[in-house]
Design a protein that fits this description.
This is Alpha-2-macroglobulin-P. The chain is an all-beta fold. It contains no helices and four strands. It has one domain. The termini are far apart.
C-alpha cells in the first residue's frame, strides 16, 4: 500500500451564544477569536475520506483554560477507493484558551 500525507487542522473559535456561561452573557473578543493549527500525518492509501467536527462549550472565567480531547480515527474495517487516505489510531487534541 502506498503511503501519503494528510493534513489535520484543528480550529478553536470564540463565538457568540444565547447560552449563558455561569449566569453571564457570553462575550467575544474583537481580535484573537480564532486560532488554528495544522499538522501532517503519514497514512496508508485506503479507506474513505472523512471530516469530523467536535464542539465544546468552555467557560474560562477570565483565566487560561487547558483542555485535552482524545479523537479516534476510523479503523481498518473501512474500505474504499484507492485514491482516498486512511488514518487509523488515536489522536489527542490539546487546546489552550487565554
Amino acid at each position: 500500500m502506498e503511503a501519503g500525507v494528510v493534513n489535520v487542522t484543528v480550529v478553536a473559535e470564540a463565538v457568540s451564544s444565547h447560552i449563558s456561561c455561569d449566569n453571564e452573557v457570553v462575550s467575544v473578543p474583537k481580535r484573537g477569536r480564532i486560532d488554528s493549527v495544522t499538522r501532517s500525518l503519514i497514512v496508508k492509501a485506503e479507506g474513505v475520506e472523512m471530516s469530523k467536527t467536535f464542539n465544546w462549550l468552555l467557560c474560562p472565567k477570565g483565566q487560561c483554560v487547558y483542555s485535552k480531547h482524545p479523537i479516534t480515527a476510523a479503523g481498518q474495517e473501512e474500505a474504499g477507493p484507492a485514491h482516498s487516505k486512511h488514518v487509523a489510531g488515536r489522536f489527542t487534541v490539546t487546546t489552550t484558551f487565554i
